[in-house]
Structure formats: structure tokens, C-alpha cells
Design goal:
Elements (H helix, E strand, L loop, with lengths): L9 H4 L2 E8 L7 E8 L6 H11 L19 E4 L2 E4 L14 E3 L6 E3 L2 E2 L2 H8 L16 H8 L9 H5 L1 H4 L10 H11 L9 H5 L12 H5 L6 H17 L2 H20 L1
Parallel strand pairs: 1-5
Antiparallel strand pairs: 1-2, 3-4, 3-5, 6-7
């Protein structure tokens, strides 16, 4: 007796992925909500989250803009690691759980959206680039290369989110965080900058709080060597100014000469 064979439908042939999204209006209310999302080859986690928003949960809050890893808007945590939703492929997690949560270091607004306003307030306290002479001026290629990578920052604040001082100890009043160490470095290491942000680093910016674990560098989607090329050199400058007896004496003597010159003028 012949048996009938069921013709597969488009629906039965689709591949589905299991996705968990943390949802809630406060951190205390956050709870994982499971969803099944149809998989499309090449899709990124942001695609999956947006599918849930479009088809099942229109009130799901998620921040995104360019979907090209340039705006830094879609920062979140995927399986506990700070990452960009638009730059993380779903197929990285084949056979693994896929859990999406908001950044832990910052106050929660709703679901995957956090309040990162503190970062912009910090930026206002950093003295801007102060040219030693009016442009145009000459810069050598090695000088350009030294600071170029710092300008790649898209302010996704993933480095801030993974920083132990901010993430685990809420030390927002003690340390500006790695993002602003790169901003300060972009000025301090510029050969034509005449500003002095070393007192700020030693004081309110709190560079001494960093224990150079390198976790900020690991999560940077732009590949900026935050620890090696920004934080450690800035730490050395602070140490030279405040802790090296000879260099401290030389610096104070220089300042005294400058003050005397200003008085005579």
C-alpha cells in the first residue's frame, strides 16, 4: 500500500532561532522573555530583535540608528558581553543560547535602552584642543598616526560598560572611564596642543583608578588600543609630573620661570 508523502510547506522549511531578551522598566523588574525568530542567513542580532519588535512586541525598546557599526547606538550585552547588536552575527551562536540584555553600567530607561547622559556631561569638563599656533601648521606622518586611532571612537560606550570601576563599583564620581582617556589622549598627544590636562587626569578624571586589565580594548568595535596606546602613556605622564622627584622639580621650576616672565611682562 502506497503511503502519501506530505509536501513540505515554506513555513515548515524555515529555520528558527531561540532568543531571550531582558525586558522591564527598572533593573529590579528586568526579566528574560523568550522569543522564536525566523532565521535568515547573514542576519545580525539587531535583525532578530527588530523582528520581535515588529511582529510580536511593538513596545520593545531598543536604540539603533545606522545599522552599520558607525553610530554606536545599538550597544547592549549579548550573553553577558558588551557588543553592538548590528555587528554581531546570529550564526556565531549556533548551538548556543542567545541572550540580549541592556548595558549593566548605566541606568535603565526601558528594556534594552539605557541612560548614557553621564558620558556627555563628563565630556563637557575636558578642555578642548588648544593649538600652540594658528593653523595651518606642519605635522609629521608619525605624529598623525599617533593620535589617529583615537578619532575612530563612535561613542558606543561599550568600553565604559565593561570598565570594572564603573560596571562593578559604580565609581562614576571617581573615574571618567576609558572612553575619555582616549579623548584626553587625542589632545595631549597631539604635537600642536598647548593645553595641560595632566592635573585633570590626576584629579577628577581619576586615571589612577584604572588597573589596566585591558577589558576596554577587548570590547572596542573600532579596534582602538585603549589601554596600551592611551591609558598607560597617560599614566606615565601623571607619574612623571606628580611622583618622579626630579621631573616634578623640573616641572615646578619651569612653571616658576613662566610665572616670573608673566609678571615682568
Amino acid at each position: 500500500m502506497a503511503t502519501s508523502v506530505e509536501t513540505p510547506t515554506a513555513e515548515s522549511e524555515r529555520t528558527w532561532i531561540d532568543l531571550s531578551i531582558m525586558r522591564g522598566d527598572t533593573k529590579e523588574e528586568l526579566s528574560p522573555q523568550p522569543y522564536r525568530v525566523p532565521y535568515t542567513p547573514g542576519m545580525v542580532v539587531l535583525d532578530a530583535v527588530r523582528w520581535v519588535q515588529e511582529h510580536e512586541q511593538p513596545d520593545l525598546a531598543v536604540r539603533w540608528n545606522c545599522k552599520a557599526a558607525h553610530c554606536g547606538s545599538c550597544s547592549a550585552e549579548i550573553n553577558g558581553r558588551p557588543r553592538l547588536l548590528c555587528k554581531t552575527r546570529v550564526d556565531e551562536f549556533t548551538g548556543k543560547a542567545l541572550n540580549v540584555a541592556p548595558m549593566k553600567a548605566f541606568p535603565l530607561i526601558k528594556d534594552l535602552v539605557t541612560d548614557v547622559n553621564w558620558n556627555y556631561e563628563v565630556a563637557k569638563t575636558i578642555p578642548p584642543f588648544k593649538p600652540a599656533q594658528q593653523a595651518p601648521f606642519t605635522m609629521y606622518p608619525e605624529d598623525v598616526e599617533r593620535v589617529k586611532e583615537f578619532h575612530k571612537c563612535i561613542e558606543c560606550f561599550l568600553c565604559q560598560d565593561t570598565c570594572h570601576v564603573l560596571r562593578e563599583h559604580a565609581g562614576f564620581n571617581k573615574y571618567y572611564g576609558p572612553r575619555f582617556m582616549t579623548l584626553i589622549a587625542s589632545h595631549e598627544m597631539h604635537p600642536m596642543d598647548a593645553g595641560d590636562r595632566i592635573p585633570l587626569l590626576h584629579g577628577d578624571a581619576g586615571i589612577a583608578m584604572c588597573n589596566v586589565t585591558g577589558c576596554c580594548t577587548e570590547v572596542c568595535p573600532q579596534g582602538i588600543h585603549i589601554t596600551d596606546n592611551a591609558i598607560i602613556p597617560l599614566k606615565e605622564r601623571v607619574a612623571d609630573r606628580y611622583y618622579d622627584p626630579l621631573k616634578k622639580w623640573a616641572y615646578n621650576r619651569k612653571r616658576k620661570r613662566e610665572a616670573n616672565a608673566d609678571d615682568k611682562a
